[in-house]
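Hey,
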Amino acid sequence: MPLVFPLPDALPRTRKAAMALLLPDTLPTLQTVTGRFVLAPFTALDVEPLARLLARDEIWSQGFSDSEARPAGEAELTAFVDRRFAGLQVFSVYQKLPLGQSRFVGTTGITEHEDATERVKIGRTVLDPDLWGAKVNHEVKITLLDWLFSCGAGRIECDVDARNQRSLASLVRFGFTAEGTRRRSSRNVDGLWRDFVILSLLTEEWPELRPRALASLAGQMPAGLLAV
């Protein structure tokens, strides 16, 4: 039987019904469309499990934050999380398990926003490598974008290290437009310059893209993750 997903409480508005970007000071708790995952505000209790994820070699193999040396050991990883996540509006992502249990599987959130231009930049996305290929990022992004557009976002953007072909391909398949490359943008820890690809998705595009994103999610979710 095909999966049927509910509509979000508030669909993106049109230009005729424009409204200003208004993000709350405190993030809400959101459930993804399948109910497999919950997005909750990142707290101090999530620092340790995130540090454990960041100890995985796979996270760093795609050029993750190599503008500074990779942290070594628990203390450095914890300090890295504190430094990189401080002051940002970040969600923790939890996978729902049987018997009312859940487990921390990553983060995603907002790194910049401009109310006047309705621009929101998303980032700090880190997901358990054991779930890569299971459409988790895809499902989480649908929920995040639903919420951001309902808050009045007009443009959602992100930038990705040009070497990270896995993330770039995933974002383009999702529906983001690659607008160009910001060349020689920052140095990595070895002193070499990094290029970043700028991608965006607009509120006017989301009503058409959302059903496609849901169809892709329903058609390609691994069977082992359909029920939790």
